[in-house]
């Protein structure tokens, strides 16, 4: 009786195609990145829509500064008092626009002329000059961390577009003036107004508003009540620009 020879082993089952193996890994990696990307888009949209109606309780910068104070042996300090848009002096709103973003009500998140000028100046200067709009600063302050990397700037641009689409200019200005760093442990215009001039933000004069606006670029080094000669000149220019601005129709 003849024996049936055993079936020949398929060489393909013994030696797998390395291309199919790497192809499977690449598909897995692609799926993971796709899920992460979709999760990021979904969460960012929810966050922007949420803060359209709810006031941000803190920013990552506040937390970072708090730990820096603790590391320096100081007490944890976040002096911040939220004030609605109508509870802030019009002088402060005008000073912020005059100092930081004179085309705030016209652009859609980016002032390309200011960015171009900043690039030209930075190419010939060791001191970096920013060209960020108020909208970009809000995107950075509320949703992101400090830094100058291209990745962070790219994400900042993405959030800038989102808040320009889903928020009004009034809301952007309201969040900006309530979240911006204005001193060591001082955040928002109400806390700054009380710290520097012992009065509510609703009662700030043009001179006082310009004095606060002038320290926006470097609030940890500069003081609204003890200005240098340079800051006094900047304050004069801000007040001059405030007079030039037309009505701010929010």
Automatic annotation (TrEMBL):
It catalyses: [GlcNAc-(1->4)-Mur2Ac(oyl-L-Ala-gamma-D-Glu-L-Lys-D-Ala-D-Ala)](n)-di-trans,octa-cis-undecaprenyl diphosphate + beta-D-GlcNAc-(1->4)-Mur2Ac(oyl-L-Ala-gamma-D-Glu-L-Lys-D-Ala-D-Ala)-di-trans,octa-cis-undecaprenyl diphosphate = [GlcNAc-(1->4)-Mur2Ac(oyl-L-Ala-gamma-D-Glu-L-Lys-D-Ala-D-Ala)](n+1)-di-trans,octa-cis-undecaprenyl diphosphate + di-trans,octa-cis-undecaprenyl diphosphate + H(+). Pathway: Cell wall biogenesis; peptidoglycan biosynthesis. Its EC number is 2.4.99.28. InterPro entries: Glyco_trans_51, Lysozyme-like_dom_sf, PBP_transglycosylase, Pep_trsgly. Residues 79-242 form the Glycosyl transferase family domain. Keywords: Cell inner membrane, Cell membrane, Cell shape, Cell wall biogenesis/degradation, Glycosyltransferase, Membrane, Peptidoglycan synthesis, Transferase, Transmembrane, Transmembrane helix. GO terms for molecular function: glycosyltransferase activity. Pfam families: Transgly. It is an enzyme of class 2 (transferase). It is found in: Cell membrane. It is a single-pass membrane protein. It comes from the Bacteria. Peptidoglycan polymerase that catalyzes glycan chain elongation from lipid-linked precursors. NCBIfam families: mono_pep_trsgly. Belongs to the glycosyltransferase 51 family. This is Biosynthetic peptidoglycan transglycosylase. It comes from Mucilaginibacter pocheonensis. The lineage of its organism: Bacteria, Pseudomonadati, Bacteroidota, Sphingobacteriia, Sphingobacteriales.
